[in-house]
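Hey team,

Filing this mostly as a record. A colleague (T.K.) asked me to run one chain through the structure pipeline before their review meeting, and I want the input and output archived in the tracker in case anyone asks later how it was produced. No errors, nothing strange. Just documentation.

Input sequence:
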Amino acid sequence: MTDIEIAQQIVLRPIADVARDAGLAEEDYESYARTKAKVTLAAMSTRKNAPRGKLVLVTAISPTPAGEGKTTTSIALTQGLCKRGVQAVAALREPSLGPVFGMKGGATGGGYAQVLPMEEINLHLSGDLHAITAANNLLAAIIDNHLQNGNALGIEPRSITWKRCLDMNDRALRHILTGLGGKNEGVPRETAFEITAASEIMAILCLAEDLADLKVRLNRIVIGSDTDNNPVTAHQLGVGGALTALLRDAIRPNLLQTAEGTPAIIHGGPFANIAHGCNTVVATRLALALGEICVTEAGFGADLGAEKFCDIKMRQTGLAPDLAVLVATVRALKWQGGVEVPTLSVENVAALESGFANLARHAENLRKFGLPVVVAINRFTDDTDAEVAALTRLCDEKGLPIALCDGWAKGGDGALELADLVRETLESTPAQFVPLYPDSLPLKKKIETVAQAIYRADSVTFLPAARNRLAYLTKRGYGHLPVCIAKTQYSFSDDPGKRCAPTGHTLTVRDAKLSAGAGFVVAYAGTIMTMPGLPAHPAALDIDCDENGRISGLF
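Output structure:
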């Protein structure tokens, strides 16, 4: 059966029962129909000083184009921990419609390790991403309206960095002209769209501690500069209050359930290749207050999501992960070893052994943050015993604890080995978390530190646009911020064709952008795009809805 067929056969618990099991009272949430709810701001505020559980970060090796099942593993692990009597809560991101209708598909896990109802989570959920889109585009409209009506702030139109956004893959919107058609149609200028997951407002929502912090962050957004090269903020435009109003409900975490009826908090959805790749701070804090163990995940490989989780999210919150689970698949290791996608199901121990260097490097990198690391093999049906045995042997040789995870087929029962390993490691090996670099390091040095320590680049080349932008941001007082490097997810380098564990490469940083509200500086490496395109055969062509409202084709 497909993921959606499995999901549609599961009888969901009333969300009131899930909330009660999580320790939430009736006044702590508002139901959205029978199977989902929004947790109130008051419920989060009263739990701010509650004892916190352990924080387990699920990350992965460099993925194939289809992904390696971090979310499936996260959910299976949560279910497995609950079966062992641990109060575990999953805190995960919301899917973007871009991948749902594009190449990768949905992001609710798979098989018997899903968050449910999967159709609703993949298709709008409670409208959080649409609220972010609306807030982003309101700010864009206010900027253009300000230009049209006298430009009292003296904004230099060519300096405007704020883009419109859309929660969809649409390459035709990467470069656009607005304000065409005459004097009454606006001030003509060149601009662009980016996908909602890459919007600074997405990052702001995900990093805000509460509604008051959200408003402060929204007000300090820098949209461009005036004719004297001074930054212009959303506060100066007078729009911070309206943006906050649009996001009033979106900042409240969504309570749902796993396929086994255990609590799951789904909130926020930045990509890790073009943004910081983590769910919201409020959802993580809530899960830590409600559970003995919070299981969360960061997008794509550990060189992206996990690095940003540690250097951005943990730095800003003062939280610290207690353990990293590194998800690996036999097929991804064979892909890293040179096997192409059509033959990944064919046994090839030699290719797996060649590709193991990718896993080993990710594990070494995670240990640089002072984290204990365990490896989870997300098992697929075409993995052979010889391949699994080879992977286990290689991990043993590197001193990496390893467990099989068969969550897709068996749910929590398929993750009991992993759950036991996680519990044992948490008890026996305390983390000694430390970010990769101090705040005081200059922006260029921060980028070079990530490039050399995590990507293993020999050097970093800064193109003129990046050099000038970083110098300007430093001069304006933003040099203390952490960096968020946007690059391909398929390689440690900025070239998606360089698989496994490349060395001797140069990272090319072509531009940089300030995200003052989010509290970081984005550095664009290689040819990474903030508005993805659809593949030749997008997933949207296989999705359908019958006369009874039953959806098919989601995966």
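Quick notes for T.K.: The two ends are 11 Å apart (CA to CA). The CA atoms of residues 161 and 354 lie 43 Å apart.
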